[in-house]
Structure formats: structure tokens, C-alpha cells
Write a structure and sequence with these properties.
By secondary structure, the chain is an alpha+beta fold. It has one domain. Helices cover about 45% and strands about 25% of the residues. The chain has 5 helices and 9 strands; from the N terminus they run αβββαββαββαββα. Strands 1-2-3-4-9-8-5-7-6 form a 9-stranded antiparallel sheet. About 25% of the residues are buried.
């Protein structure tokens, strides 16, 4: 290997080290900010929460004793692996961003089932193919989303949350209402999230939780 090639390798390794340090700091600051507003939103559902770190790129918050109509609630924040250049670049090329996964179990089961998923989401094909075409009806709605519901009760639930789905559509990746726990599964993109949009998002999530609970019984 020539001296020039050695210098290139050394420079690239040094760049990866610097990138790791900077990326780790960016994720730490963003994670702390996201954790603060997630806790703020979940306190409306219960005062007792536990926080678990998921390595350097995420954390999980559990509401130990959720208030009615929920039995328990779990929120997971998954950050882009900004500290690892190649993984971050791969996520960037795939259009992936930081995202929130919210799972809620109600004290009483839902009577209908609904699936809303963004068409370009990588799980869209698998989710939609798993729905029995004879039992489920589906339609494309605004925001590049597909909404599917099962039966009359599922249709009523879909109608009850339709305006909230429309409001969440710029960030919504998947929303699932199921008879089996977790009854509420929500996956949202957090790309470009600032303080103002975070407050609006928290308000929408609380409204959605109430609509799901009231329409399910």
C-alpha cells in the first residue's frame, strides 16, 4: 500500500471517530428533548412512569398504572444511528427518520379493527396482504395512506378517528386498532420535530386515545 493510500485510510478512520463523537452528542441532546415531551404527554395518562435506555439510539417509557380507559401504555423512541456513519447513510437513503412507537392496552377490548398505513412504508405490503379481502374493506385516503376496516364496528371506529388521522397524516406511518392487546399501535415519524409541532402532536395523540376508547365500546 502506498503512502498516499495509508494517509487516506488514516484520514477516513479519523473521520469516522469524529463522526461517532458528534453523532453521539447530537443523539443525546435530541433524545433528552424527546424524552421530556414524551413524559409530558404520558403524564396525562398516569403519574408513575419508568424509563429504559435502548443503547445510544433510543429509549422506552412505560406508564405503570395508566388511568382509564387505558390499562397500560408504552412509548418507544427510536433515533437514527447518527453516530455510525454507514448505518445513518443507509437510513437516509431509505427515507427513514427518528420515529415514535406507541402501544396502548385498554381495560376493555375493542369491538372493531382498523388498519391505517402509509403506502410507501416498508411494512405496508406485508400488513395489507395479511388482511382478508372478504372481511376487510380498504380505501386510499389523503396523505398517501391506506385505511382498512373490518366489519360495521370497524367502520364506525374508522369514522370516529378519521379527522384525527387526517391531522396526523404528515407524520403517520401506521395506526392499528385491534381486538387483541395492544389495542392501539401507533407509529409516527419525528422528522423535523420542533417544540411547537411536538405540542400539537401530543394534543393529537391524547385526542386519538380518547376517540379510540369511546368508539370501541
Amino acid at each position: 500500500m502506498t503512502e498516499f493510500a495509508n494517509q487516506v485510510v488514516i484520514a477516513f478512520c479519523a473521520l469516522l471517530v469524529v463522526w461517532y463523537v458528534v453523532g453521539w452528542q447530537v443523539n443525546r441532546r435530541r433524545g433528552e428533548r424527546l424524552l421530556a415531551w414524551v413524559l409530558q404527554g404520558l403524564r396525562a395518562l398516569g403519574d408513575q412512569t419508568t424509563v429504559s435506555r435502548l443503547g445510544t439510539s433510543g429509549f422506552q417509557v412505560n406508564v405503570v398504572k395508566a388511568q382509564a380507559p387505558f390499562k397500560n401504555m408504552e412509548a418507544t423512541i427510536l433515533l437514527q444511528p447518527r453516530e455510525i456513519f454507514l448505518l445513518w447513510l443507509l437510513d437516509l437513503l431509505r427515507g427513514r427518520a427518528d420515529h415514535l412507537v406507541l402501544k396502548g392496552t385498554l381495560r376493555a377490548s375493542l369491538r372493531g379493527e382498523v388498519e391505517v398505513i402509509k403506502k410507501r412504508e416498508r411494512l405496508a405490503g406485508r400488513v395489507l396482504e395479511g388482511l382478508d379481502e372478504e372481511a376487510w374493506t380498504r380505501q386510499e385516503i389523503a396523505g398517501g395512506l391506506v385505511m382498512a376496516c373490518r366489519g360495521e364496528k370497524g367502520q364506525r371506529q374508522a369514522e370516529a378517528i378519521s379527522h384525527l388521522v387526517e391531522g396526523l397524516s404528515p407524520r403517520l406511518l401506521r395506526l392499528s386498532l385491534s381486538k387483541q392487546p395492544p389495542h392501539l399501535l401507533l407509529n409516527l415519524s419525528l422528522a423535523g420535530l420542533d417544540e411547537r409541532s411536538a405540542l400539537l402532536l401530543l394534543s393529537s395523540l391524547q385526542d386519538l386515545a380518547q376517540a379510540v376508547a369511546s368508539s370501541g365500546h
